Amino acid sequence: MGSLLDKVGVNVNLAPVADTVPTSIGEANQPIGRHGRQYGSDPVAVGPAVQDLVRGMHAGGVATTLKHFPGLGRVTGNTDFTAEGTDDSVATRSDPYLGPFRQGIQAGSELVMMSSARYPKIDADNQAVFSRTMITDVLRGQLGFGGVVITDDLNAKALSGVPVGERATRFVAAGGDILLTGRAADAGPMTQALLARSSTDPAFAKQVDAAVRRVVGLKVARGLAPCS
C-alpha cells in the first residue's frame, strides 16, 4: 500500500486507525465499529497491527498519522455529524487504550490526529482537540511524541458551538500544529484568527512558530524542502 501511494504522489497517509472498539459496543460505535475500521477489540492486539502499518508505509516511502487520539472506540456518536454520544467517560491517563498510540509512536509515526470527542476524566473542560492537557501533557509529555499534531475535520458538527477562528487558535494554544478542515471557506477566518492573536500575544506567537518549525521539519525529513 505504501508503494502504491508513493507512486501516485501521496506522501502522507492519514492512517492507521489506532482506536480500539470493545466488543460490548461493536457496530454501535458509529465512527469506527460501524465500518469495521478497527484492528481489534483488545488494545494488546491493536498495538502490533498499528506498528505493522506504520512500518509498512515507511518502507513504501509514506509518512503515517495515528488517529484519533486518545481513542474513539468507546463513543457511540460520530463527531462529524453530532455532539451526542461523543463523551468517553472511561478513559484516563493510564488507559490501556492509549497503548496502540504509544506503540505507533515507538514505531516512528510522524503525525498524530486528535479526536474531537470529550474525555472528562482526563480534561473535564475541553474536547481533546482543544485540550492542552491532552496534547501537551499526555501526548507530548507522557507518551513522548515530538512530531506533528493534526486535527480531525474542524468542520465537524461536534465543534459547531465554537466560532471558526477560535477553533484554530484553541488548537494551536493547546500545542497542535496542522489545521484540517473540509470546508475551504473556513481557511481564511482561521488564518486571520491565528495572525490576529499572534500580533497581540507573544506567548501564542511562539506557539505558532513552534508549530511551523515542526511542520517544516517534517517536510525536510520527507525530502520536500530541497533548499534545506
UniProtKB/TrEMBL annotation:
<dbReference type="InterPro" id="IPR001764">
    <property type="entry name" value="Glyco_hydro_3_N"/>
</dbReference>
<dbReference type="Pfam" id="PF00933">
    <property type="entry name" value="Glyco_hydro_3"/>
</dbReference>
<feature type="region of interest" description="Disordered">
    <location>
        <begin position="23"/>
        <end position="44"/>
    </location>
</feature>
<dbReference type="InterPro" id="IPR050226">
    <property type="entry name" value="NagZ_Beta-hexosaminidase"/>
</dbReference>
<protein>
    <recommendedName>
        <fullName>beta-N-acetylhexosaminidase</fullName>
        <ecNumber>3.2.1.52</ecNumber>
    </recommendedName>
</protein>
<dbReference type="InterPro" id="IPR019800">
    <property type="entry name" value="Glyco_hydro_3_AS"/>
</dbReference>
<keyword id="KW-0326">Glycosidase</keyword>
<dbReference type="InterPro" id="IPR017853">
    <property type="entry name" value="GH"/>
</dbReference>
<comment type="similarity">
    <text>Belongs to the glycosyl hydrolase 3 family.</text>
</comment>
<feature type="domain" description="Glycoside hydrolase family 3 N-terminal">
    <location>
        <begin position="5"/>
        <end position="216"/>
    </location>
</feature>
<dbReference type="InterPro" id="IPR036962">
    <property type="entry name" value="Glyco_hydro_3_N_sf"/>
</dbReference>
<keyword id="KW-0378">Hydrolase</keyword>
